[in-house]
Amino acid sequence: MKLEKATLILIKISLIAIFSTDALTKYILGYVDYPFLILPNRVLKILMIISTLVIILRYIKSLHKIVIKIYALLLILFLTSIVNYVFFDLTFEYFIRYSYFFFIAPLFFIKINAVRWQKEVVNTLKYLLYINFFFVVIGLLIDFQLFKTYFNRFGYNGLLITPMQTTYFYIGSIIVAIKSKQRTFLILGLISALLAGTKTLLGFLAFLSCYFIIAKKKRTKLIVPLGIFILFTFYAFLQQKSFSNTINTKGLMYALTSSRSNLLISFFDNLPTTNFNIITGGVSLKENRVEMEIIDVLMYFGLLGCIVYYYLYRQLYVAFVKENLSVFYYFAILLFVLVAGNFLYNPINCFMILIALKTLQLRFSQYT
Question: Which residues are CB-neighbours of 89 under 8 A, at least 6 positions away?
């Protein structure tokens, strides 16, 4: 089997499996009163890493350059974790979570035909979004908790499991739909994003509208509807009762960051009493996670970890960021990763980002 075909099969199967196991895990967490030793979506992450390593080892001659670059960074993270284990008594839980990006990234550097990518990956993502949209509508109509994003405020995410995974799934899907020029896919993605009710998604839609106003400024017919869309997005955002109540009681910054601003202040206040080491981190994220990714990486891996992630993102930028839309997407994601957090904490988010970046790298035909 050729490397391209093996990669496409693995990514396609992984997409379907992620969607299915997340749906099953969401049901288990909500309705099954049984202490599972390990949840289905966690088993899948392990299997995905193993499958990726099998392909890499099978085709190491074709992949050795990028594998050496990325896995050398992974080795630095691992050595940092060993230091933290020996000297600060930290477990390897967060190394496993935060290293998933490095394990799977080499697959996306493989040269793949755009037509095959659209057929095997883009269309799979499209149909998964269609399926999920059906459950979003069901949840909206009958107010079924299983299909809700939150327990206490507006939002419907269908079979997707957490608000942040929902956010990155829809952001990636919208970008893929734009790049692959599929109108129905894009429209349902936009509607789903609005119904999901996460602040990050609403912020992304506002930024996306601004991007298109600027990028398509010569097409004056687009300015009015996009302007209306921006206003509607902000209106929907501000009309959420829980959000307005939080602003009134705890302030705008607290509301926008979902309490992360307070967690950040608390971390710096308590820093002198922690075992923080600027080189390797050494702070347990179980008790101190701020959910702002760069701060969490700094706490756990130290400056070494921040440098490692900088080089990984630099590799992604050089390989995949080739045009205005990819520049917008890349820096929008970096902003949301910093402010919204939980990107690396939920490894599947990394998978969606890589799919979107790979799609942006390719060329597609006219709108369908």
Answer: none
Does the predicted model carry a pTM greater than 0.85?
A: yes
320-339 pLDDT per residue, tens: 999 999 999 999 999 888 87
| 3-state SS assignment for residue 32 | coil
* Greatest C-alpha distance within the chain: 62
Task: Report d(CA 94, CA 96) in Å as an integer.
Answer: 5
- In sequence order, the 6+-apart residues with CB closer than 8 A to the CB of 235 are none
* 266/281 Cα distance (integer angstroms): 17
Distance CA(227)–CA(240), nearest Å, equals: 21
Q: Across the strands, what pairs with 277?
A: 281
Q: Phi/psi of residue 98, each to 5°?
A: -85, -5
Q: How far apart are CA 86 and CA 261, in angstroms?
A: 31
Side-chain half-sphere of 107: how many Cα atoms within 13 Å? 31
No. of H helices and E strands in the chain? 18, 0
Q: What is the pLDDT of residue 305?
A: 94
The tokens for 360 are 């942006």
